[in-house]
Amino acid sequence: MRKVPTDEHPRPETVARFATRPRPNLADAQRSLALLTNWRTGTLATASVVGCLLPFAIAWRVSYLIAMAAAIVFAAAIAAGCHLARQARLDRLAVQPDLAQLPDLAATRRRLQTARTRRALAAGLRRAADPIQPPRRFDCCPVLVDRVVGVRGEMLALADDLEQTLAPDPASVALVRELLTSGTSPLYNPNLPVEHLHTALSQARAGLTVQSIT
User: Fold this and answer.
1) What is the pTM of this model?
2) Which of 29, 49, 88, 138 is deepest in the core (most CB within 10 A)?
């Protein structure tokens, strides 16, 4: 029998977001992903075509060769930027369960369920829950230790559930990742009330516990 979420564990369909930007609907999400995909494809095609013309430029003037090489580098940079922007967009969209039917999200959702991802996020939760927070070289936002003290047990329990649940709800895993990596997260943003942290932890854990079958 599948466990039914209670009031203490809100349904994962109500996953919270910490950023102030509006949540995109299905049509907006499809449009933005298609735009980034088209830009990535177009710039890669441009770089390929110009690359094929390079041998001819060698036989012409050096100025042509320099201009074409610069065009290849520029097009490749745009393609890489579009790819990274598209991946970041998919990571944000993965938090929304109502967008699960997006074909572009399939790979992202599968990656969120892998053991490697779950172990990494569980380790991140345990580091954030540590009452002693040594400075880390690449941390741009320090954890708000005073508010973590009150939810340390919840964070450790969530880390255990994350490791032990073999097929967690991808939106809940994405919420844990956003909680740990977004500067707008209540773990780092003192302008958000501590209740937002409690809510996010409860919602993330609900998406794990409802997957259990007794």
Assistant:
1) 0.64
2) 29
